[in-house]
Design a protein that fits this description.
Elements (H helix, E strand, L loop, with lengths): L4 E5 L3 H12 L3 E5 L3 H22 L3 H9 L1 E4 L2 H5 L4 E4 L5 H14 L5 E4 L10 H4 L5 E6 L8 E5 L6 H13 L3 E5 L8 H17 L5 H12 L5 H8 L1 H13 L5 H11 L18 H9 L7
Parallel strand pairs: 1-2, 1-4, 2-3, 4-5, 5-6, 7-8
Antiparallel strand pairs: 6-7
Bound molecules: nicotinamide-adenine-dinucleotide (NAD).
Length: 301
């Protein structure tokens, strides 16, 4: 793997983290976003990340500044990718935006450039044609708070070149990730293929009044030795995310999910109980409540 220059397209929540982590591990990074306002927000996000890296990883001021200095911020796509060995796309999860982006990208990127998508819900084959180089395209999917939650799911589609797949696995390791290869396309990758049905099973037990939140969590924790049960996990993920998934299934006609969506809305969302982020979900979080009362920003906690 000879990658040196990496372009991260889209500098929102995940893009800014991917860019900073990559720079922190010594690569040259260009960040591409649609305009200067978006790039200004990216700079702010990355300045906040410098603080997190010092606090969470014990990085020195010199290290966090050197990483920042390896990043350039560019809103011209051809300039941003002129030297790119690899592009990591982290733009909004909207099919048309991604398709249009890949069509433009394939016209301006050098032939050597490998394209990857950080999409959480789409499959790479959906965009393979638009990239103009299906054999050099695959998914490279990170988790939020990449510097701590350092998984990288690397998923090929049927036409991805095996050599390219192996190179991207090497790259993921080089930026400090635990590389998790998926040899075939799978919606939700590995993590959500396991987690979503597990969390839904727990919610159905509650919805059908089989057992209460504490009992369901206790059962899972004691019987499997797991430190957290499904409802503690749901509070971290956010009840709004669980609701969106339930609503999607209800709209697709999956039985019982209309009842689940309604229950989550009336019992939790409408009462402001979104999980840990709001201080209350399936459980109450006194530490978060206290922060809220004092008006302390949670962004850094
Ligand atoms: P976000 O909304 O925070 O950021 C998107 C960024 O893309 C913004 O800076 C926006 O200005 C920019 N953008 C919009 N259109 C663009 C275009 N045409 N070209 C370049 N940039 C453009 O989104 P996010 O949460 O960072 O998610 C980005 C991708 O990462 C999605 O595919 C999502 O599924 C995936 N992802 C998100 C998370 C998460 O926890 N947020 C986790 C894993 C994967």
């Amino acid at each position: 793997m000879n990658y040196k220059n990496i372009t991260v397209a889209g500098s929102g929540v995940l893009g800014s983290q991917i860019a900073y982590q990559t720079a922190f591990k010594g690569f040259n990074v260009s960040i591409y976003d649609i305009n200067n306002d978006a790039l200004a927000r990216a700079k702010e996000r990355i300045i906040n990340l410098k603080i997190r890296y010092q606090k969470d990883l014990g990085a020195t001021v010199e290290e966090v500044n050197a990483a920042y200095d390896r990043i350039t911020f560019i809103c011209d796509l051809s300039e941003a990718v002129a030297e790119a060995d690899l592009v990591i796309e982290a733009i909004p999860e909207i099919v048309q935006i991604k398709t249009d982006f890949y069509k433009k990208l394939c016209e301006v990127a050098p032939d050597k450039t490998i394209f990857t998508t950080n999409s959480s819900t789409f499959l790479p084959s959906q965009f393979a044609e638009a990239t103009g180089r299906p054999e050099k395209f695959l998914a490279l999917h990170f988790a939020n708070e990449i510097w701590k939650n350092n998984t990288a799911e690397i998923m090929k589609h049927s036409r991805t070149d095996m050599h390219v797949f192996d190179e991207v696995i090497e790259f993921a390791k080089a930026i400090g990730m635990v590389a998790l290869p998926l040899y075939k396309e799978q919606p939700g990758y590995i993590l959500n293929s396991l987690l979503v049905p597990f969390l839904e099973a727990a919610q159905m037990l509650l919805l059908n009044e089989i057992a209460d939140v504490e009992t369901i969590d206790k059962t899972w924790m004691i019987a499997t030795g797991s430190p957290k049960g499904p409802f503690k996990t749901l509070d971290i993920v956010g009840v709004n995310t669980a609701y969106n998934i339930a609503l999607g299934k209800a709209e697709a006609g999956v039985t019982e999910f209309d009842r689940l969506a309604e229950f989550l809305k009336s019992e939790y969302l409408d009462k402001g109980k979104l999980g840990r982020q709001t201080g209350e979900g399936f459980y109450s979080y006194q530490d978060v409540m206290k922060h809220k009362k004092l008006g302390v920003s949670l962004a850094m906690s």
